[in-house]
Structure of UDP-3-O-acyl-N-acetylglucosamine deacetylase:
Amino acid sequence: MTIHPASADYGIWFKRTDKLLGDAMIPARWDMVEQTALCTRIVNTSGVTVSTIEHLMAALSGCGVHNALIEIDGPEVPILDGSAAAFVHAILKTGMIQQGVPVRAIEILKPVSVTRGDAHAKLTPADELRIDFHIDFVDEAIGQQTKGLNMANGSFVRELCDSRTFCRKSDVDAMRANGLALGGDLAENAVVFDGDRVLSPGGLRHSDEPVRHKMLDALGDLALAGAPILGRYCGDRAGHSLTNELLRTLFADPTAWRFVECSPAMAARLPGAGVHMAEFPAVA
C-alpha cells in the first residue's frame, strides 16, 4: 500500500492496483460503506472493495491530511499491530504540504443521533471536533471505560494513535472453530483479553487502551464524511456500523449540517493542525 499526494479538494480515494479491468477507484466516503460488523469496508459500483480502512483513515484525519490517493494491491489495508501508529509515523516522517486553499469543514447545526439496542451515537454542535466514548464489557480486564478528547492540536497523535484493536479469547476461539483467523498469531495484531487477564505479550500500552482504540475507530469512520467535522461525537458502546448510520442520518437532513470555509483560526482547531513528529508516542 502506498499513500500518494493529491491536489486540493481531491479528497481521499483508494485505487486497487491488482484490478486491471473495470473501475478500480473507490472514494473513501460514507455512502460507499458496505455494512460489516468488525471493520469498515468500502465498495464501488463495480463491486471492488477495500476493507479495514478505519485505522488508516484515522491516521490521515488525525494528521490533517485531507487529500490523498491510496494505491493498494489487495482487498484489505494491512492491520500491522492493530493501531494507527505505523501509518502516523510514516505520514509525519514524510511530511505534509499546505496546499494554499482554505479547508472546507462540515459544521454540525443541530443534534443528530442513532440508537441500536444498548448502543448509541450522537453528533451535536461544537466549535471543534470532540470525541467522547463509553464502553462496557463483562471482562474484568476491560470493564467500563470512559474518555473524552478535543481532537485539535495533535491530540490524536499523542493520545490515541498507538492504541490497538482488541478482542476476547472466546471470540478468537469461536473464529478459529469456524476456520477464521488461522494465519499467524492474532496477539501480534490485537490485544487479547480473557476475563481479568491480558494475554498479549507486553500487556497494555495504556490502562484504558480499549476505549482509546474505540475513539480511534470513531475518528476514522467520521473521516468518511468527506471533510473534517466541527461537532461533538458521543459514542456509547458504538461500533463501525452505528457510526456510519449516524453519518447517513446526518446527511439525510440538510438542516443538520452545512459546509463552511475555514478561517485560519478555525483551521487551527481541526485534527492534525500543527502536528509534528515530536508528538509521536514511544510505542511499546
